[in-house]
């Protein structure tokens, strides 16, 4: 419907000017938002997260609400191409971008609280598919005495108050991932500053002891 190329060029330039204006506005708004400091600040970014049954290892039993998982001895479910077959792992159904905060309560011997890209390997060795042992995932190992951070097969011993409740804060665009011990007050355990190239998914890797459990807590 354009009479000549000049009309089309003006239309395109108008669209570009509008998009640039919107982009600058969005950046200004983002820059104006300070990093959360208090628990109330973090709760503003709380996200409802559920576990994806199609990714859960066959020995993981999920609750009806897909917010709890327990490691059992017998297999529970059928095969699926998205399912982890070697490690006792599960990913969230929801992809995570922007600013997100969630908390998990764990019980048992130990658990890895993680985030991962969706294209992490589902099979192969634990170096390929285990959370924290490749460049597609970041994980905090928690037991009753220690915290250890894992990424791309590198490790860092982390100090902090022991807790069965762990908070995770993600600012995807800023490349920030933080883990907190929740013992009443929040204590920063470890903070990652990197560049995320894909949407992330919350993940959990269960230690081999049967009966280990996790629960994604309802915060709102």
Automatic annotation (TrEMBL):
<dbReference type="InterPro" id="IPR006574">
    <property type="entry name" value="PRY"/>
</dbReference>
<dbReference type="GO" id="GO:0008270">
    <property type="term" value="F:zinc ion binding"/>
</dbReference>
<keyword id="KW-0479">Metal-binding</keyword>
<protein>
    <recommendedName>
        <fullName>B30.2/SPRY domain-containing protein</fullName>
    </recommendedName>
</protein>
<dbReference type="InterPro" id="IPR051051">
    <property type="entry name" value="E3_ubiq-ligase_TRIM/RNF"/>
</dbReference>
<feature type="domain" description="B30.2/SPRY">
    <location>
        <begin position="29"/>
        <end position="220"/>
    </location>
</feature>
<dbReference type="InterPro" id="IPR003877">
    <property type="entry name" value="SPRY_dom"/>
</dbReference>
<dbReference type="Pfam" id="PF13765">
    <property type="entry name" value="PRY"/>
</dbReference>
<dbReference type="InterPro" id="IPR043136">
    <property type="entry name" value="B30.2/SPRY_sf"/>
</dbReference>
<keyword id="KW-0862">Zinc</keyword>
<dbReference type="InterPro" id="IPR013320">
    <property type="entry name" value="ConA-like_dom_sf"/>
</dbReference>
<dbReference type="InterPro" id="IPR003879">
    <property type="entry name" value="Butyrophylin_SPRY"/>
</dbReference>
<dbReference type="Pfam" id="PF00622">
    <property type="entry name" value="SPRY"/>
</dbReference>
<keyword id="KW-0863">Zinc-finger</keyword>
<dbReference type="InterPro" id="IPR001870">
    <property type="entry name" value="B30.2/SPRY"/>
</dbReference>
<dbReference type="GO" id="GO:0005737">
    <property type="term" value="C:cytoplasm"/>
</dbReference>
